[in-house]
Amino acid sequence: MSHICRVYDPFPIQIERAKGLYIYSKDGKRYLDSFSGIGVLAFGHNDEDIKKAMIEKMERYTHISNFFLDEDAEIVSEELIRRTGRNGKVFFANSGAEANEAALKAIKKLRKGLIVSFEKNFHGRTVATLSLTGFEKLKKPFEPLLPDVVFLPYNDVRAFEEFVKKNGKKIAAVFVECVHGSGGLNVLSHELSKLIMEAKQSFGFLLVADEVQAGLGRTGKFFSYQHFGLQPDIVTVAKALGGGLPLGAAIFLDDIADVFGHSEHGSTFAPNPVALAGARVVLRKLTEEFIELVARKGVFFRERLSRMDSARVKIKGLGLMIGVEVDVDAKLLKEAAFENGLLLNIVSNNVVRFLPALNISFEGIEEMVDLFERSLKEAYGRNHVEKVDSPKS
User: Fold this and answer.
1) Per-residue pLDDT for 312 more than 90?
2) Three-state secondary structure along 197-222?
3) Is 250 helix (H, G, I), strand (E, B) or coil?
4) In this structure, which CATH number among 3.40.30.10, 3.40.50.1010, 3.40.640.10, 1.10.10.10 belongs to the domain 48-285?
5) If 173 and its partner were Cys, which of 154, 206, 210, 315 is the partner (CB 3.0–4.6 Å)?
6) 2, 26, 30: which is closest to 14 by C-alpha?
7) What is the mean pLDDT of residues 15-31?
């Protein structure tokens, strides 16, 4: 009997090693990883450059605490600020949830009032970040959560307009995911992003862009909000930042850069020096040319998916953050894919979330879609057999 809390449903694999796009099991099988550790491994498994930097740091030290400054902390924070094109300061955390906790804590210090989030936003599983997450099923067992949080329908322009008209002066902050991660890969509309900025200018609330999953080149821009003309006050990042190790950051921009004074926030472990070494390499590899190539790969991936021999899918997302909404039993699809050597991640019940390594080749995309198409056909067949064989009521 396992002594691990049963909060996950892992694949039935004993991993021997992982490299690039592939995970290898101890029984000699190879599996194509379509979601890169849930978007953590931007350069695939066991990247040599990242590994080398981490080993070099580990040979010096693995932890020094916040009583000492690792030189990579300055390098990484300076680069994150540079990519915003603005001025600011960085607070390092250990995860996306912690980065969003820091954002929320800053808001509480600066503004009093309502916090607006959107349905199917996902900002974390701590009590505070769960309060901002738009999934009733996740929140229900842990209520009551934080008060004064309002959820609006995602991309419902009229609902946002009407709410702001009635409550604009009461809004302290708005949290937005420009591309839903766990929420099904929906993409923010330009109409809503324009309204958010107009309301922000009128009422002065703080805008938080959660880039934990969609940031760091994933959508074909360094930050996903850069597609939509948003000017956030706070940007949160994590996942891919640490090169495979836990590292998150809350980026406080312009007028609120110095929101936290001495001892007003902190972390024992963050920023971990080994994770910072990985982050330094990750950011160095994310050149403008590389990110432009990610955008082209995303277009190619979507086009290849659209040519599949099935009209029963809906393709969503941006860059190499792609969702395919299917009308087949998700469990059957995941099982068929596993048998075909493809590891799938399914969110919001029926959306396959593709988060491949950003350095995936065009040939790798072809292989991934071919295996997915084969698995989808097999799942349709199994679904039909189950319906035929099921007893009639």
Assistant:
1) no
2) HHHHHHHCCEEEEECCCCCCCCCCCC
3) strand
4) 3.40.640.10
5) 206
6) 26
7) 97
